[in-house]
TrEMBL record, chains A, B:
The keyword Flavoprotein is assigned to this record: yes
Organism: Allofranklinella schreckenbergeri
InterPro entries given in the database record: Flavin_Rdtase-like_dom (IPR002563), Flavoredoxin (IPR052174), Split_barrel_FMN-bd (IPR012349)
Any one Gene Ontology molecular-function term assigned to this protein's record: oxidoreductase activity, acting on the CH-NH group of donors, NAD or NADP as acceptor
Pfam family name, one: Flavin_Reduct
Family per record: Belongs to the flavoredoxin family.
Domain of life: Bacteria
Record-given protein name: Flavin reductase family protein
Assigned keywords, A-Z: Flavoprotein
Gene3D superfamilies membership: Electron Transport, Fmn-binding Protein, Chain A
Domain Flavin reductase like span(s) in chain numbering: 13-159
Length: 188, 188
């Protein structure tokens, strides 16, 4: 395993570049995973995120019931899995298995995570009924975060020296993604 | 000019891949522009977006006062300007000028736009005082959108055949961006 903890105050960097994520949750012993393009950092400290979860999704009542969810940032090599998990109305347990993916748990957190992703953020739901009902908008406080040290070290992504399979994904529509591209550093 | 209108129901695709944006607004004759990493699509129809705007920013009262703002998706060639506009507490008029950038207006919309960006979304603020106060979270309904036809045509980005300067930007931290990378299409 290549996972290393990421300090909470740096966890926004895991999604700051706008990658597509998968959202996972568990309630009453039922686990599920769905893909989501509309996840975003909301605050540095406390670390918070937003994610849009449609009322039709199988995962939404798991989040509302348990008060927890995780965002995971898939690698480009997982693009097929991300598309399969895009069938968000369904209980995707069989599809996860078919795709050769496995769920796992980090010690102390009863939120399922998809093995082999670039980064993970386990979140506590901050209930905001109006946002959830009117906008399908969920707010989470990040409780813990981890990233794959092959691509994220010392608080920064390092994509320039890895194979394309270890880049992250940026979804557009219709099965089309862009991989994370070249680094560019600009003096402030 | 290369700008072409983008149908509202396709406008989410302009930011779905998670690019860094610049936020612009005008109130009482005062124009400003600031950079923001935390902008995200919220709904397809009506097309809506979220954007996080700190209380310390110069632009926030312009949005609250006018009830309008724009998101623009800069090209990689504008990375230096994006960093300069990151000084969000300031009235950045002089910096825009120094950077050789110009503001312009589209017919019918009194919201300033930064010339030479890849895409634009002009939005009406949907006032949500609790979100704005507690989370610095602003919700906008997209009123009109445009994109540069060199990179966005028929509802899709076309980055694979353009120079790096015409890619979009994904900010991490400390002046470091990633350019939008290679396209990958996965059958659903």
């Amino acid at each position: 395993m290549f996972l290393q903890p990421v300090p909470l105050e740096k966890s926004f960097r895991l999604i700051n570049h706008g990658p597509t994520v998968m959202v996972s949750a568990k309630h009453g012993g039922v686990e599920n995973v769905m893909s989501a393009s509309w996840a975003c950092a909301l605050d540095f400290s406390p670390a918070r995120v937003t994610v849009v979860i449609d009322k039709s999704t199988f995962t939404r009542p798991l989040i509302e019931g348990s008060g927890q969810f995780a965002l995971q940032v898939p690698f480009a090599s997982q693009a097929q899995l991300v598309m399969a998990m895009g069938e968000s109305r369904k209980h995707n347990q069989e599809k996860i298995h078919q795709a050769g993916a496995k769920l796992f748990y980090q010690d102390g957190f009863d939120v399922p995570l998809v093995q082999g992703c670039a980064a993970y953020l386990v979140c506590r739901l901050l209930p905001e009924p109006h946002n959830q009902q009117a906008y399908d908008l969920f707010i989470g406080e990040v409780l813990a975060a981890w990233a794959d040290e092959r691509v994220f070290r010392q608080g920064h992504w390092h994509f320039d020296d890895v194979d394309d399979s270890l880049k992250t994904l940026h979804y557009v529509a219709g099965g089309q993604f862009y991989l994370t591209g070249k680094s560019r550093v600009v003096a402030p």
